[in-house]
Amino acid sequence: MRNKIKQYRTQLDLTQEQLAEKVQVSSRTIISLEKGKYKPSIMLAYRLSLLFDCRIEDLFQLKENLALEES
Amino acid sequence: MKIYSYRHFITGIFFTIIGISTIWTTNLTFTDTFDWLELGKSLFFIICSFLIAGYQFYITFSKKGLKEHDLEEKDERNQLIDKSVDAMIGKIAYNMIFVLSLLFIILWAIFKIGTLLWIGAAFSILYTMLLFISFAVIVYYEKKL
């Protein structure tokens, strides 16, 4: 699943460990999310979008992911 | 030193006692090969017990360690991995029981040894029980989710 977590994280100048601590997950989860391997729960998606102050649809690239799913 | 988690402190003491009691009960005379196997088994238990106890004491006395441990325990990806592992193990055990029950019944049909039939029957009963349990679990989750 594509997302912009890395982009938003670097904008806030956070390390993966710092981001993990802020959203209460392990840093391996953040690594996996950034690689697009792991699909987060809705609550984690909410926590991330709240932290980055953006919409979930933008953070998790809704249109691109829907197009990927349909193809 | 401050104790941050009594639960982990008690677990640490428990594993220390297991380790010490394993050392205490290991009585070797080295008269045959089985003594070396016994030594290997005991050493494995002793090392594992002290490693677990050491980790439990680390998170008992370290605030940072406890925080990391809690985070790892609550992490949703870790929980998903644990559930997937459990499901996979369950599936493998389920299929193995089915194969074993068939195998023992076939062996009984070939060799006509009563014990083989009893073992096959035991596996078949276990398989049937698991089948009913899985139906019950499906019904439970159909209602819950």
TrEMBL record, chain A:
Pfam families: HTH_3. The lineage of its organism: Bacteria, Bacillati, Bacillota, Bacilli, Lactobacillales. GO terms for molecular function: DNA binding. Transmembrane segments: none annotated. Residues 5-59 form the HTH cro/C1-type domain. This is HTH cro/C1-type domain-containing protein. Keywords: DNA-binding.
UniProtKB/TrEMBL annotation, chain B:
Keywords: Membrane, Transmembrane, Transmembrane helix. It comes from the Bacteria. The chain crosses the membrane at residues 12-30, 42-61, 92-111, 117-141. This is DUF2178 domain-containing protein. It comes from Dellaglioa algida DSM 15638.
